[in-house]
Here is the input.
Amino acid sequence: MATSVIMPKAGMAMETGTIIRWLKNVGDPVTAGEPLLEIQTDKVAMEVEAEASGYLIAILRAPGEEVAVTEQIAFIGAKNEKPPTGAPAPVPAQAPPTAAGTPGRVMATPAARRRAGELGVALEAAVATGPEGEIRLRDVEAVSDSRRTASVSPLARKIAQQEGIDPTTLTGTGPGGRILRQDVSMALAGHPQPHATRTKLTAVRKIIAQRMAESHLSIPQFTLDTQADVTSLLTLRSRINAEAALSITVNDFIMKATAAALVEAPYMLCSIDSDEDEIVQYHDVNLGMAVALESGLIVPVIRGAERLTLSALAAQSADIVRRARERQLTPDEMTGGTFTVSNLGMYGITSFTPLINPPEGAILGINAARAEVYLDAGQPKERRLMTLSLSVDHRVIDGAQGALFLQKLVALLENPYKALI
Amino acid sequence: MREITYAEAIREAMSEEMRRDKNVFFMGEDIGVYGGAFGVSVGMIEEFGPQRVRDTPISEAAIIGAAAGAAVTGSRPIAEIQFSDFIAIGLDQLGNQAAKMRYMFGGRAQVPMVLRAPAGSGTGAAAQHSQSQEALYCHIPGLKVVTPSTPYDAKGLLKSAIRDNNPVVFLEQKLLYRKKGPVPEEEYTIPLGRADVKRTGTDLTLVTWGRMVAMCLEVAEKLAAEGKSIEVLDPRTLVPLDKEAIIQSVIRTGRLLIVHEAVQTAGYGAEIAAVVADSKAFYHLDAPIRRVAGFDIPIPYNPNLERNAVPTPEKIEHAARNLLR
Amino acid sequence: MPTVSSRASAARKEGVPEIPRERLHDMYLKMLQIRAFEEKVAYFFSRGMVHGTTHLYIGEEATAVGAIGALKDDDIITSTHRGHGHTIAKGIDLKRMMAELLGKEDGYCRGKGGSMHIADLSRGNLGANGVVGGGIPIATGAGITVRLRGEEKVVVCFFGDGAINEGTFHESVNMASVWKLPVIYLCENNQYGMSMSINKSTNLVDLSERARAYGIPGKRVDGNDVFAVFAAVTEARQYVIKSGPVLIVAETYRFTGHSKSDANRYRTKEEIAEWKERDPIPRMRARLLESGQFTEAQLSELESQGRQSIEEAVAYAESCPEPSVDELTTDVYAE
Here is the structure.
């Protein structure tokens, strides 16, 4: 009896997910818990694990398709089991390989399989041209090439086919020159090719755009700058790393101090719900850590940061960054933040005005630490100064409160041992 | 470069080695006064005398066994068996004695002998004088097996075989004895265990040896005109096999066709196919591994039947085309 | 139908050849060592302490010792599956020979050969052989090397009444006769192949007459009379160095079965008893005493020395390590 695989609801607000790629071919054995496919939600790209063991007996939705949550996308069953009738017919990518062989198993040469794995191409997406109906290396290369160079979206291809034009002769306005439906439509309408290229917003970018606009338009925010002498902090950090063989970053230290300071300054953990005319007071120090990925800025959350030791915090932050890059973050790790830290110090930024991350009330920007010579009783000495840029929501946090928080934070940064006890 | 026949190349190799090392001697049936059934040793008894070029009675077991006994006591005999089919008469001496003495005696003996014999069909000599049985000898640990396809290879390989301290089965091809090929005047040797790419190519690796090499080169030439690039690889030594050369070639081309005159079932092509399938080249195979080989039959007498009992250029071409689709 | 015992009578030779005392001492000791070694091996087998099988030379000692006693140290021999006697007679380190039987690393073949493949090329022993008649062509080939090098050596090729009917015997002796190779083809006729009596396997009664088929001299001797064998081989040695091969047939008898799995169902107890009366060791002992060259005490001393050397060999072999599995694939090919 086959088990159906559905588009999972991987977040409270999730309504649809887009299939990025299948990690198994039809006919492959599957173990419960193994990653089965990759999807893109509005927040994050993630892997979906199989919930049953058996064989992948049918794939119903292809890479690139947007699917409503809880809709069926595949079936897992016994080897050679036929997928249930009544279910929507499995979508063939183009023409299914008709090679004689195990029903349901894709016939492909070892070279083709290897290359498919290397390129992240699903074998089902290839059109078999081997003499026995098997998928050859060239067939896999063709899929990859079509994606990379003259790639054509399924819809564009369908319309082009219907209208009898060759889509690969068009200039695409999609990512990497991908030919989209609008390109085909424009070509059909006889319009000249545009001078600028338009790219549909990715899910991630769309979200960022919405939220930053919201932040800017609805929050009257202003930024307070102050300086901290981080000479001792940098020295302490080097010592800890050397003697305990750890890899604690400066950012980890700052987050630890921030968490400690926030405990003393709960008024920073507020925001306003203007619809209800209520002040929302958060009780947890859930630090959002801004991470820049190629696809855009994301802010994963370290929950209960004030309860973590420095090394635990450092381990978590390192883990989060790694998994963010590998698109393995869960939706829960992306929500629930009550204060955000954004560090542009590694780019040499000396001051900036970070935008608050709604529904939070404040955001701390970290800048570069620069060396400076000062006179101490007539003697020249070197110290390291770092500017902290704190943006606050003036509706619920006043300047004085922001300044007070910064004082506490600076005190901890300048006497770092205090943050550790 | 001068051109000499395969037979002359073999004679030169033996003569040069006998001049170089007094321990080398040569024995076999009709090799002395008669000059050998295929004329390979013409002139040698005149140069080296009857002590070192010994005509034997028709006694294959004694020929092979005496070679083993002479070798284990410090001589370096070359024993010729008139037709490779008759090695069977002395297979105990070859396989149970010569091949195993070193191992059985814990490494405290060596048997530096060469057993030369002509193999292969095409002369109308029929079932008992036309076989290619290299697979039998490849299956006996302790032996080395060499199958040269050109005069150049034959001379260089035979010199190395004579200098090798192990029993070497040196299988020559009857139909190649009269064929000429370039052979340098200067002395040279070819190491055992090293394959030779007779023609480079990119689309298909064709592994073949003996008389089939020339046939495969013909086919490759013909298909090159159509833009198909076939690499013809001659292992030259079957044991020890130059596995790495074959594997690297298949990694480049992604396709393997093995052609041998010997009977297909349990022929040495099966071993090569298994070696490649069990190597990193597997993940580069873009087509099944195929063989074109002799039918599983004794060699028939009728000339047309005889020709078709083993691979032909047409069969090789057909198989190559199929793989290149 | 000639009986087995009548064959032996026909072969008996009178007279003791002149042999230096030192040589006699050595020969008698070797006979004793062979007997003690074989009895010890039999003991091990009956207790399941030795792997595989073995073929004991008990009762045939005079043939090996008499023949090899007549050779020079650098003469060459090939042996058979029943080869412990030849090996000990040719001179071998008993400790390492026993180690080989126990499959140990320090055995002559590093544990890889066992009873049927013991060899010591440094002493001209080209090895025991697991194939009946397998050593005959090899001996012939050794003769070729001797001729090529112009050496004054001979090769003694031991083989049995079973092997004399193998094709290799015919091919090899003929080849040697044509090339006048210095090989003494010595047939140890112990009257039985494995279970087949010579009467049933071979029409010819006096096997030495086969020499005529090759135009070479043939001789038949009492294989249990060490002096008769010694005399025959001494004479043969001088001959073959110059003139080519000879065939000697030594009539003898094995007291034990063919191998360890042999229950002796093909011969009678009476026959075995009759041959035991001609046990070569007491016969030699008597003649040594008769000759006046040895005293009773000296002979007893040699007897205990013989036994002692076997005990030492056993102790050594038991203490040796087994070969490592890492050595499994070594020594197949020479460099």
